[in-house]
Amino acid sequence: MGFLLLSILLAYRYLKSDVLHDEWCTVTLSFFESDESNVLSLPTPRPTPARTTWTLLIYLTGPSTGCVGGETVFYPAIGPAKNYSGKENDGLKPVVVDLEVGMALLHKHGQDCLLHEGREVTAGEKWVIRSDLCVRR
How confident is the model at residue 137 (pLDDT cuts 50, 70, 90)? Predict the structure, then answer.
């Protein structure tokens, strides 16, 4: 099966007090059940139906650039976001990914994506570049 790293790069900027809870909010929507959250058409000469399977994040800031907070946190006890029931994570500790300039984080996306969030930025700015790995539907 072929795959494509999207040529579209998204740049995310988070300011002091910004928190990313989008992954928490979207789990209540029905598209997780139908796996439509990661469906797209690739901009090829003839549009190609595809879906994202992995997300690649590259951190451009961290403590060395004055960014405090903003860590990416995964909740493995809850499992894929589609299974989120609103309960606590049963004592299994969250996995915290600290920011480091130039570090890449690759994680599952779509129906098998672990529930995760970006913690509050308490000082400075957090900058991240994102792209997605896509496969043909």
Answer: confident
Under 8 Å between Cβ of 107 and 116: yes
The DSSP bridge pattern shows strands 126-136 and 48-59 to be antiparallel
For residue 22, pLDDT over 60 is answered with: no
Encoded tokens for 85:
């029931």
Distance between CA 18 and CA 15 in Å, rounded? 5
Structure tokens at 71: 């860590």
Contact between 126 and 13 (Cβ < 8 Å) = yes
54-75: pLDDT as tens digits: 889 999 999 999 999 999 988 8
Query: How would DSSP label each residue in 4-22?
Result: EE-S--EEEEE-TT--B-H
Structural tokens at position 83: 């299974």
